Amino acid sequence: MDEARIAELLEPFLSDNSRPTAVLSSAQIRLISMYIDLLLRWNDRVNLTAIRAPEEIVTRHFGESIFAARQLFPLPGVEAGATAHVIDVGSGAGFPGLPVKIWAPHLRLTLIESNQKKATFLREVVRHLGLANVDVFGARAETYLGSRGDVVMFRAVEQFESVLLNAAGLVRPGGCLAVMVGRSQLDRCRKLLPGFQWKYPISLPISSNRCLIIGSNEPR
């Protein structure tokens, strides 16, 4: 996909009233372009995403994921120079995890995806883009026994409540859970995880009802 058009479509996600306008490097835009081309080719054979229009892929998948990354990093509570561990639960075609990695290359990223065809695609993206320090766990989140995350992320999915609880169990004490959902699901987040300290939801650009809500797993 044309890199100049990608940069143009991502502009609304790189500026907001709460922080300085961000800039993606030409190398980052190039990685996104390569990722989109690979996604479109695979989507003809494997149902990776219902969104098939390239420009909507840029805004819904890459834009919203990078917007979330801007709210999260640099991460409070992680020492300067340390490598934060991000876990993306139910990663699907790699969102939000892989765009977050493109935004913040220093992160350690674990993608959890139980669908084996999608997990194979994720490994191919990681290889094709030359991304380091990325693991793909091709099984269900409740069977993951690796280290817990400084940040655990997921987008609205089927079986939302069970995924929410599984994701929360992967957050280290003092870490946070970042959920991209419709506003109708916000109350369920708060009620199902009353032990988390929830920040005020942040509206996602170019959306009337989707938002990002972040909850801290504060030790008690």
CATH architecture: 3-Layer(aba) Sandwich
**Continuous helix count:** 7
User: What coarse outline follows from CA principal-axis ratios?
Assistant: globular
Q: What does the radius of gyration come to?
A: 16 Å
Order of helices and strands: HHHEHEHEEHEHEEE
Assign the CATH superfamily. Answer: Vaccinia Virus protein VP39
Q: Main beta sheet, described?
A: 8 strands, mixed
Report the mean per-residue pLDDT as an integer.
92
Q: Approximately what portion of the residues adopt beta-strand conformation?
A: 15-25%
Helix percent reads 25-40%
CATH class: Alpha Beta
Oligomer status: single chain
- Count of distinct strands: 8
Q: What is the terminal-to-terminal distance?
A: 48 Å
Looking at the structure, the CATH topology is: Rossmann fold
Structural class estimated from helices and strands = alpha/beta
Q: How many domain modules?
A: 1
**Low-confidence region ranges:** none
Detailed description of the structure:
This protein has helices at 3-10, 26-43, 54-72, 97-103, 116-129, 160-168, 186-192; strands at residues 85-89, 108-112, 134-137, 149-155, 171-182, 197-198, 202-203, 210-216. It has 220 residues and is α/β, with parallel strands linked by helices. The chain has a single domain (3-216), classed as Vaccinia Virus protein VP39 (Rossmann fold), CATH 3.40.50. Strands 1, 2, 3, 4, 5, 6, 7 and 8 form an 8-stranded mixed beta sheet that branches. Helix 2 (26-43) packs antiparallel against helix 5 (116-129) and helix 3 crosses helix 4 (97-103).
